[in-house]
Specification:
With about 600 residues, the chain is an alpha/beta fold. Helices cover about 40% and strands about 15% of the residues. Bound molecules: adenosine monophosphate.
Length: about 600
């Protein structure tokens, strides 16, 4: 089917052609069906289904009638109103309608929370044919008499279920009551709970109910996976899933703002290009984060459900539920961010062991089938990395410039091919965030039992950690401590030269290089490559910082740290600590929030 078959308004048909949209999506074909012209519609449609263009085309007859253009004179009052739950969605809708109506002379204005209301007031006073806004801001303009609903011929409620969930019922009812009775009302919603049916019953006239995608066929392009994990290894599971799937763009959901901020900063410290959006960001900050994801500067967006509402992120490959969704509807909303416009997507749920039954019920009620699969292990990711590194290095071996070849020949003579190839691999590998070992998760999957936190021990055959030249990124992979029975390290005696520092957390407080290394890097402004041997004692941890970085590191750690103020890093004193020192040693500290055992998953 083509758009011509649906006979949309000619001016809009031209805009579609300019945009390169040749075929209507299913929701567009459905809404534009001739039998629905002029009728109120109650449509279940997912984000990404092309619903904005669908309702944009549908209301064209109400706006334009038989005319090809709207009158150039300033409109007395808006003729169409679109209400959307969030400013992002409202702004996207405005942009979408702006290109669709570009040839008609229609003025499309936005009224959204977080933007300057006086500017909006001026724009409304200058005249608008179509107004797109969020419920609260629209009501503010009604209160101030900036907005006149008396000429409305069409009202569209986009993502109506979201708006009710966000507590906008009163605002919606007020707007619908104030709008002229003789209007057309389109109500679009991803889900159709009874509250939506009630709203439709009260404010629509004999609405035709349309389901663009029957529920059982919804999200067909999404592959669902569920991974049972030990709850305190959630972050490691996120890391390994991202490393395994290597999505070009992923959206990771957390239940709380704190969770979002924590995960985003930890992912960034580990070398992922991660950005976050949560409610506390200003509008420009949110837009910057989204832009970074769109243009590829960021590959991971961490968000809460509220912050992610209404975002248009068409190219997501992966939705990762770091915290389980609240219910089946939220699961569908979150997952619907991927697998859009014919692209395949993956939705991965990280399920704490004890919540397996909850997750099963949720999947069933969302009518999706998930494949239960273990989180990728460190070894699996290393095997994937082997192939990826071979490929990446091979791609670099393509064309060579004469200058480069000159340097290459000298290097070959001096070092030989193998050390050179391995140096190349090392460079490429340094870009990859280190995968994690999920000790508890593996143990549970094997024996159905979670070991105690302090029982982490290196396997008998684990390499002594670290060996000469091993960067912390490698070391992290063997994230194990040497027992104090090996004796305290003597500065200068280790395999790597540098200076020793100490931290006031130890094995009794869950010290583990896997979270210590990112913390040390952040506090000292160094990279993993600058950290050498790490030795964990019951109450403290000592570690080596490379000679080149030690002086700056010593300065950087003096700065107070807002994030983990109780964790102190200081130069290690060479005179060995007496038993009195041990007694005076700081009280055991708690590791950062995300590392704490039994951390509540929700605020
Ligand atoms: P929406 O569901 O309205 O958020 O639309 C998702 C994306 O699909 C938007 O970027 C639209 O511009 C795009 N889109 C809408 N209709 C079509 C179509 N017929 N063909 C290709 N892309 C479309």
């Amino acid at each position: 089917m083509t758009f011509e078959d649906l006979s949309p308004h000619p001016s809009l048909l031209q805009a579609l052609a300019l945009k390169g949209y040749a075929q209507p999506t299913p929701v567009q074909a459905l809404i534009l069906g001739a039998e629905h012209a002029g009728k109120d519609l109650l449509v279940s449609a997912q984000t990404g289904s092309g619903k904005t263009v669908a309702f944009g085309l549908a209301i064209a007859p109400e706006l334009l009638g038989q005319a090809t253009r709207l009158e150039a004179a300033k409109p007395k009052a808006p003729m169409a109103l679109v209400i959307a739950p969030t400013r992002e969605l409202a702004l996207q809708v405005q942009q979408e309608l702006a290109w669709l109506y570009a040839g008609t002379g229609a003025r499309v204005r936005a009224c959204v929370g977080g933007m300057d209301p006086r500017k909006e007031q001026r724009a409304l006073a200058e005249g608008a044919h179509i107004v797109v806004g969020t419920p609260g801001r629209l009501c503010d303009h009604l209160d101030r008499r900036n907005l006149d609903l008396s000429h409305l011929r069409a009202v569209v409620l986009d993502e109506a279920d979201e708006m009710l969930d966000m507590g906008f019922r009163e605002e919606l009812e007020r707007i619908l009551r104030d709008a002229p009775v003789e209007r057309r009302t389109l109500l679009l919603s991803a889900t159709l709970p009874s509250a939506i049916a009630q709203l439709a019953g009260r404010y629509q006239r004999n609405a035709v109910r349309l389901a663009a995608t029957p529920p059982e066929q919804a999200h067909q392009d999404i592959e669902y996976r569920a991974c049972a994990i030990a709850p305190r290894e959630t972050e490691h599971a996120v890391v390994n899933t991202l490393r395994q799937l290597e999505p070009a763009a992923a959206l990771v959901f957390c239940a709380t703002r704190d969770g979002v901020n924590h995960l985003q900063s930890n992912l960034s410290e580990r070398g992922f290009q991660a950005v976050a959006i949560s409610g506390e960001l200003t509008q420009p900050e949110r837009l910057r984060a989204l832009q970074a994801l769109r243009d590829g500067r960021a590959r991971v967006l961490v968000a809460t459900d509220v912050a992610a509402r209404g975002l248009d992120l068409p190219a997501l490959d992966l939705v990762l539920h770091s915290d389980l969704p609240r219910d089946a509807q939220v699961l569908q909303h979150r997952s619907g961010r991927t697998g859009r416009a014919g692209r395949k997507g993956i939705s991965v749920l990280l399920v704490p062991f004890r919540l397996r039954a909850v997750a099963e019920r949720m999947l069933k009620s969302a009518r999706v089938k998930a494949r239960w699969t273990p989180v990728a292990t460190l070894e699996e990711i290393r095997a994937l990395d082997h192939d990826r590194l071979v490929k990446a290095a091979g791609e670099l071996c393509g064309e060579s410039l004469e200058d480069d070849l000159g340097v290459a020949r000298t290097l070959l003579e001096k070092h030989g091919p193998e050390p050179l190839a391995s140096a190349l691999v090392r460079l490429l590998r340094a870009r990859l965030p280190a995968p994690e070992e999920l000790v508890e998760t593996a143990s549970f999957l094997l024996r159905g039992k979670v070991p105690r936190a302090t029982e982490h021990r290196p396997p008998a055959n684990a390499p002594r950690f670290p060996v000469r030249g091993t960067s912390a990124s490698h070391a992290q992979a063997h994230a194990h401590s040497r027992s104090p029975a090996h004796g305290p390290p003597t500065p200068g005696a280790g395999p790597v030269e540098g200076s020793w520092f100490q931290l006031n957390v130890g094995r009794l407080t869950n010290a583990d290089p896997r979270w210590l290394v990112p913390l040390i890097c952040r506090r000292g402004g160094v990279t993993k490559a600058d950290i050498g041997k790490i030795v964990i004692f019951p109450k403290e941890t000592r570690f080596l910082v490379s000679a080149g970085a030690a002086a700056a590191f010593g300065q950087a750690i003096r700065r107070p740290d807002k994030k983990d103020p109780a964790i102190r890093i200081e130069p290690y004193r060479t005179e060995s600590r007496s038993s009195q020192d041990e007694r005076l040693s700081p009280r055991p500290l708690r590791p950062p929030r995300s590392q704490r055992p039994d951390r509540p998953r929700r605020a």
